[in-house]
Amino acid sequence: MSFGEQVVSATSLAPALCVGLDPHPEVLQAWRCSDDGPGIAEWVGLIVEGLAQVKPRFVKPQAAFFERLGLPGMTALARLLGECRGLGICVIGDAKRGDIGSTMSGYAEAWLRPGADFEVDALTLVPYQGLGALMPALELSLSHGKGIFVLAATSNAEAWQLQSAQRSDGVSVAGGVIEELSRFREDNPGSLTSHGVVIGATVDHGQLGVDLTNQPAMPILAPGYGAQGAKLNESRDHFPHSHHLLAASARGIIGGGPEGFPSRYELAMTQLQSA
Q1: Is the pLDDT score of 155 beyond 90?
Q2: Contact at 8 Å (CB) between 128 and 159?
Q3: How far is the C-alpha of 274 from the C-alpha of 54, rounded, in Å?
Q4: Hey, which residues does 172 pair with through a beta bridge?
Q5: DSSP for residue 33
Q6: Which residue blocks in the chain are alpha helix, DSSP H?
């Protein structure tokens, strides 16, 4: 199935859970792995074993925590991506790439080309060189049935001044990202359920000028559940108009180490399904 088909299937009855795979040093310690190349390789083996037990529909590895460990870290990331996809788990690469021209094409090839070492099913992108600058990734993703999530409204305090700033037409920067992506989706029907936005679960929509009332089919990737404060059982309240919500939680599920990992996953699923 294409990424869009996976999203529709997973969110037909309730928001879907996306397990963040963020091997912070504290997470590695909780899994009794060293914070180095051998440790990250060991952690990948352990987390894949755990994922094989619970079979989540979506996972979201954060590339930075692998990149910081150099070549061993990137080797571990490539293995993790391949193993997860081999288990039938949809992988959203949280790499937040963004550039122009041939550089953007290079990022797109690295993450979205079938057979690439870091091939994922969907990729997060940063639109602040203009959404049009992301076209190489948008077009490549369409041609291979991949997905894209463009950062629109993030929950970090530093983002407010930029993302709430108004354009000359009165639309906020965050709202403009949603508006421009919506036009792309209208022009490319194959992207309707595969190309969406990242909106933090703790974001004040009104303060940032985010209006999703006319975008029910746009997929929303919402980080911030669990350790960052948002509650999974309130996810529908956070995004009442979204038909395709992926609620992401990382440390709340993987942060406690291997003991109880399946139980923490099942608890998160129960909370989400009660939303």
Answers
A1: no
A2: no
A3: 19
A4: 166
A5: -
A6: 3-10, 25-30, 37-54, 64-67, 70-86, 101-112, 135-143, 160-163, 173-187, 205-208, 235-238, 251-254, 261-273
Overall average pLDDT of the 247-256 stretch: 95
Alpha carbon distance 194, 6 (integer Å): 9
C-beta atoms surrounding 181 within 10 Å: 24
What is the percent of the chain with per-residue pLDDT over 70, rounded to a whole number? 100
Residue 113: strand, helix, or coil: coil
Cβ-in-10-Å burial (0-12, 13-18, 19+) of 246 comes to buried
pLDDT value for 226: 80
> CA 111, CA 118: separation in Å to the nearest integer?
5
| C-beta separation of 250 from 224 below 8 A | no
Reading phi first (left if > 0) and then psi (alpha if -120 to 50, else beta), residue 96 is in left
Q: Which of 153, 193, 165, 166 is nearest to 16 (CA)?
A: 193
- Name residues whose C-beta falls within 8 Å of residue 238's C-beta, 6 or more positions apart in sequence: 201, 222, 230
Residue 98: phi, psi to the nearest 5? Answer: -170, 125
Q: Which domains does the chain have, with CATH numbers?
A: 3-273 (3.20.20.70)
Task: Indicate if the alpha-carbon torsion angle 3, 23, 230, 197 is positive or negative.
Answer: negative
| Residue 208 CA: distances (Å) to CA of 154, 202, 220, 222 | 10, 12, 16, 15
The distance in angstroms from the start CA to the end CA of the chain is 27
CA 190 to chain centre: 19
Q: Which of 55, 60, 96, 146 is catalytic?
A: 96
- Interaxial angle between packed helices 261-273 and 37-54, expressed in degrees from 0 to 180 and rounded to the nearest 10: 50
60 classed as catalytic: no
Claim: this prediction has a pTM higher than 0.90: yes
